[in-house]
Amino acid sequence: MTELERKQDQAPVPVGWEYETAPESRDIVTLRERYGHFVGGEWLEPKETYTTISPATEESLAEVGQATEEEVQLAVQAARDAFENGWSALAGAERAKYLYRIARILQERAREFAVLESLNGGKPIRESRDVDVPLSAAHFFYYAGWADKLEYAFPNRKPKPLGVAGQIIPWNFPLLMLAWKVAPALAAGNTVVLKPAETTPLSALLFCDVLRQAELPAGVVNIITGDGRAGAALVKSEVDKIAFTGSTEVGKAIKRELAGTGKKLTLELGGKAANVIFDDAALDQAVEGIVNGIYFNQGHVCCAGSRLLVQESIYEATIDKLKRRLQTLRVGDPLDKNTDVGAINSQAQLEKIQELVASGEEEGAEIYQPPCRLPEKGYWFVPTVFTNVAQSYRIAQEEIFGPVLSVLTFRTPDEAVEKANNTPYGLSAGVWTEKGSRILAMAQRLKAGVIWANTYNRFDPTSPFGGYKESGFGREGGLHGLAPYMDFE
Amino acid sequence: MSRLPVRKTYKLFIGGDFPRSESGRTYEAEGQNVARASRKDARDAVRAARSAFPKWAGMTAYNRGQVLYRVAEMIEARRSEFADLCSGPKEVERSIDRFVWYAGWADKLAQVIGSSNPVAGPYFNFTVPEPQGVAGILAPQEPPLAGLVSRVAPALVGGNAVVVVASEPHPLAAIELAEALATADVPGGVVNILTGLREELAPVLASHMDVNALDVSGADGNLAELERLAADNVKRIVRGAADGQSAWEIEPFLELKTVWHPIGV
Amino acid sequence: MAQAPALPVGFELPLEPRLPRIGSIDQVALEERAATLAKRSIKREAKMFALELAVRMTDLTTLEGSDTPGKVSALASKAIRPDPADASVPSVAAICVYPNLVPAAVERVRGSSVKVASVATAFPSGQSPLETKLEEVRWVIEHGADEVDMVIDRGAFLAGRYAKVYDEIVRVKEACGETHLKVILETGELGTYDNVRRASLLAIAAGADFIKTSTGKLPSSATLPVALVMLEAIRDVYDETGRRVGFKPAGGIRNAKQAVQHLVLTHETLGVDWLTPDLYRFGASSLLNDILMQIRKEKTGRYQSPDYFTID
Fold it and tell me: For an engineered disulfide with B229, which of A199, A488, B160, B206 has Cβ 3.0 to 4.6 Å away?
């Protein structure tokens, strides 16, 4: 054997190709030990605080305020003052330029925000870097352009701002949900008091520094942090409007609370979306769509495709491909650039997922989970598929809000529509078929506010988002996202 | 002894570059020798615009909006230079704010001008606006900056590429704008600016078979003749406000496409 | 009562699929999936593994009208010993040349592990009569080629004459005998991803040992989405029949980063079994030196200059 042949012979036989860790550096983020509430352009020293952590490691990140009723009041007053003393009188073109500044600064500080978002919330850096942060900047950019064009948005109406909007947002897309709320509110001429979710306050608090750099007048945006109690105080306060994104249960409570008060309300609540795959779908891409629909952001998505409705004739092929695809999903450190599925946001959420998954097994569904090595500390759940699921099982009815897919079958388009619509929710749906007319027919009949055909979990500031039925009312994004923030006399 | 300044050479703006006129001619305006574009320069500019058009039109509306916003950033950065070349700071501010205003339309046009049409049959039917292609623009002779911006921005925001004939008595603001465009991430060839004699250049653009629209808002002289020349390839003739802003200034530079598709399982 | 017309002769309804489902490809979703896989960050040991693997998988290529025995001789030296300054760098898999240069190539690589691959069948156009194409194949094999890279008749494919395309591949494979056959689809001419999938399955059904993207003579060649379509076709065949077909992206892979992205695509679509020169080759010329530069950068920590890497 020649030297060369020997070298070939000794070449390593691949037993596996382990990608090394590829962590995004945390250095770009400077965390303070303690944050107050951002009220009237100043940092208010909080009366009570709690600790916010990284769900991937359980390490403490910072102390943040647990807003009291008085502190909420101060914030609302600051917003009211700002509204009455200048902001509402400011020309639309000037308001627009503030919003453009905010958009540009978010673009400039994109990496910083992406790292912080992954650190505090648990989502993979690839998603916060490529989806959350760019979309957030884009929302501000889009709505900036409406601030001085409102007369075009509402033919034959005279739009005026409402006044002060109270906004309560969830923990699954902290910065993006902030952008969805603040951008249109400000474009319309309102001022806001926003409460980020209890477990993910940090990107909102960093956002206050963007406001400083943009020189936004004091009190136009106020941020108070805390748990549900702070949210409840905000709902009860002297705001003109409440915008809430979160669980259906809390949404209903808010609606009851506001009954008879004349305060405007929009709600974006839960969902149990059906992702419908027809036998003529581009199958490999449909499988990618299924994966994206339920495992993107660990399934912490209100519009997640949590029910797979697959046409029975391609059931085996689809499930085989799906199970194989799950093998290459990488679960782990959110700050690792190769991570596909990050940490579950909190202990509480993890327990909810575990409880529902247990119910699935009890009720008789068949569970599949790919082999997966999970880190020791932190909150994790392996991507899961349930087959042999009946429409009546809890896992087919209740929103799990985790990386858990329930698979059901159908035989005809009619049956698919029936099953897809058989839920009190109506936020979103997916349709996979290569036939155009069928896409449109399904879109016509599915009772959901957002229908994705041959794609899933696509968002854009120009595209209105919101639900039917118990998934809420009102739309965010697009021209239609302005109306909830306007007073038409 | 005071320092001798290094004077700027005022050239054309074609395809993202600053060439002299191929004819080698100049004319005197505002105390400067300014390039006097020839019909061949106009031909080259149209070619550059046509070549750049697919890329500009193919960008997402969001991207186009961002580029136009950046043009405003670049004009703002040069406010004092611009102020010297037009009626003053107020005109410059108006022009910057106008660019910002138009930039914000890029990703909203389809929502205001387009539609979903409820036809009487099982069809999904929608109408979308699209850019026409290459627009020839005869910039208003006055005001030198705000007039130019008022005509160029609406053509650009919809995705068109443009060939501009600058104000003949006050062309310097146009060349300054070209410099702002060249540093604003605008792809080369999307905007082309020709300085020179209006009566030489206008008929070339009016009769060019590869120009889709002719903006005559700033035309003086023989408008009827220009319209006659434009008839040979059925150019769209655009007449707008020399110094105003409206979504309806954008609309004449757009085509409308309507699509049908059946709805059925 | 009216009678239904008789079915045309030869029209058979397959009740059990003998070939994997042909299916369609959604362009947007495919390109997104490829782009997401391209974002994988491969570092340190993982990167070294990929780079050395890429060297061992390279088919070092020269396919010019101006090729001479001298040029091929230089290529062969490079193929055997890519980096004279680093003996641990392995030889490449093969050199790939035009038929006339096969004898010179065979002579020069004798005694090494490097194989000789020859293009044939009126490469790159394929626009010649079948008889001359088969003659060419027989000739190169007689003169020592270890592998044959053929082109399909794209004109016939686009005109819908799939049986002719199929037939030609079958006949070429016959002429090859034991010699390893790669079938070039020239994906840049096929127009749609659907067509790439169809051509892949057709070539495999006709006996291809490897399917290959391109001749390298067109500007558009081995993009990641095209590779993904072909890898998925290979995977579907494997699932259905157990048969393993190899893949060779060629043309347009100019730097190590792209090569690693292709390997990631393969790893996450077909698994680790395909990460071997027996089932995967890169058709390339300038790629090799970029890989060598990256290897040296990994070893020394310094960015490299082309001056320090031999042309042959």
Answer: B206
